Amino acid sequence: MSSEPLDLSRESNDVGNTVDKAAKWIFFSCALVTVLTTVAIILVLVDGAIDFFSEVSLVEYLTGTEWNPRDSADPSFGVLPLVWGTMVITVGSALIAIPVGTLTAIYLSEYADERIRSALKPTLEVLAGIPTIVYGFFALSFITPIIQLFYPDVGVFNALSGAIVVGIMIIPMVSSISEDAMSSVPDSLRNAAYGLGATKFEVSTQVVLPASLSGILAAYILAISRAIGETMAVTLAVGMLPQITMSPFAEMQTMTAYMVEIGTGDASVGSIGYMSLFALGLTLFLMTFTMNLGSMWIRSRYREEYQ
Amino acid sequence: MTANGPQTVASSESSGSATDAAMTDDAPLGSPRVDDAVIESRDLDVYYGDDQALHGINMDIPERKVTALIGPSGCGKSTFLRSINRMNDLIDIARVDGDLYFHGKDVYDDDVDPVALRRKIGMVFQKPNPFPKSIFDNVAYGLRVQGKDDGDVEKKVRTALERAALLDEVEDQLDSSGLDLSGGQQQRLCIARAIAPDPEVILMDEPASALDPVATSKIEDLVEELAEEYTVVIVTHNMQQAARISDKTAVFLTGGHLVEFDDTGKIFENPESDRVEDYITGKFG
Ligand SMILES: Nc1ncnc2c1ncn2[C@@H]1O[C@H](COP(=O)(O)OP(=O)(O)O)[C@@H](O)[C@H]1O
Ligand SMILES: [Mg+2]
């Protein structure tokens, strides 16, 4: 029993209350910085894009099939060749990363024993930590020469090499997020299926995969939006020639690669070439933002409930 | 050949069948041999890494009866149950020594496929674990996996639900998620799922321990009915439950030893072992 009189007043706990209040404000300020930065980026993009679209019609930008802002006599601002370059790289890399990443995740989560898993997971994380410019060099010095072994006419810069290298780059993202989702499926579900005479393959594909589908789809979307925004590797591997072509061996240019080109080149501030950066930046932002929204929607819509 | 009292015949390695394989020194008190055994455990040891969880288990499980495994927590009841349908294979560090015969065939022989074994020996777990699928698909899952979904799946599903005493409650909502059911209903769903592919043996690991008394008594009634068609092995830490529903009772005590195995009435009224008597009367455990 306490001998002091019971004191429950606020004043009795002054220090604690002050620390609590200060902490709350510090946390809030940090959150605020993040939010304000995001808002500022959007404002800058929108502001620059407005300038750009006061000189170039939105219709030309969205439907034109030629992108050549630096021809001072007859500049053209059709974004489609750049979007095409981005799409080819994105779809191509997804075709590589989704199957390989998903199968890797299934292997790690369902098949690998503890020893293999503890060796493989850090390796994948290292792969995810390599600077993307290194992947670009890897494409130029390794992947492209291999492609050239089979198709000697292929140039140094080509979309295939870029798609492959971006694919490799985003495999760890697909596999690690998918593996997290699969590992969080409770063992009780696996046991239920094993107890009914299911094979490991059936447990993996019929029980674990469906139960972790939302996390896996979210991984795909995040990886795809990473591919859309990928810059350095594609600048090095894919090249600088904006064109719409069906050939995967052709040189192309992605939106991001063009932004590197113009941003590091001689475009003077205020020129139309410079302003096009903002339009492209905003376009990219909207594309990846939509993807991320989609990922969030899938997660909330298809979130499985276990007890 | 029924034996009363501990067997002292030396072990013979002479044949693959357990019928004439004799009990060893590890034979428990009581009558560990039964005439119509479906499952015969012989000198079964189970290890988790370096820890031995079961020591030389010798007992028979009779056909179409309820055999209860009782004993204090951690004495190896679940381990023994899992060694019958080789669910222990799924635990990396688990290792099994000795023999376990199912219809005279040692299930730990190299040529036995545990997947095929589990199709004959179904299992119900301690915590209800329906798949995040519809009630229908939960029950149909085993049929599909076992390739028994050729005929009238709907009829088989309904029959299984009927036998699990759940059909009346879920008849109009077969398409809704199994997870929407109450705990007791979920466990009956899991029982329906286990019996739908028509196994011979059903293993149940404390199937009512997570349920309220009303749901528990439904499960108990169900277990007794199931024994008309299936061989049931049920783990329970609830002695009254074992006394109510089982024909045979195996008492495991601390350290992973099977101490006594006999008719349930005998175990509860007049056990041979003093330790079992103490345990039954609540003096320890
Ligand atoms: N997966 C496992 N890994 C390691 N040890 C285990 C595992 N499962 C059970 N054990 C150990 O084996 C012994 C018996 O456990 P268990 O069969 O679950 O007992 P019961 O079901 O009678 O409570 C306990 O000492 C337990 O700690
Ligand atoms: Mg247990």
From TrEMBL, chain A:
It is a multi-pass membrane protein. GO terms for cellular component: plasma membrane. Residues 83-295 form the ABC transmembrane type-1 domain. Pfam families: BPD_transp_1. It comes from the Archaea. GO terms for biological process: phosphate ion transport. It is found in: Cell membrane; Membrane. This is Phosphate transport system permease protein. It comes from Natronolimnohabitans innermongolicus JCM 12255. The lineage of its organism: Archaea, Methanobacteriati, Methanobacteriota, Stenosarchaea group, Halobacteria.
From TrEMBL, chain B:
InterPro entries: AAA+_ATPase, ABC_transporter-like_ATP-bd, ABC_transporter-like_CS, P-loop_NTPase, PstB-like. Keywords: ATP-binding, Cell membrane, Membrane, Nucleotide-binding, Transport. Gene3D superfamilies: P-loop containing nucleotide triphosphate hydrolases (3.40.50.300). Pfam families: ABC_tran. GO terms for molecular function: ATP binding; ATP hydrolysis activity; phosphate transmembrane transporter activity. GO terms for biological process: phosphate ion transmembrane transport. PROSITE patterns: ABC_TRANSPORTER_1 (PS00211), ABC_TRANSPORTER_2 (PS50893). Residues 39-280 form the ABC transporter domain. Residues 1-18 have a biased composition (Polar residues). GO terms for cellular component: membrane. Residues 1-34 are annotated as: Disordered. It comes from the Archaea. PANTHER family: ABC TRANSPORTER I FAMILY MEMBER 17 (PTHR43423). This is Phosphate ABC transporter ATP-binding protein. The lineage of its organism: Archaea, Methanobacteriati, Methanobacteriota, Stenosarchaea group, Halobacteria.
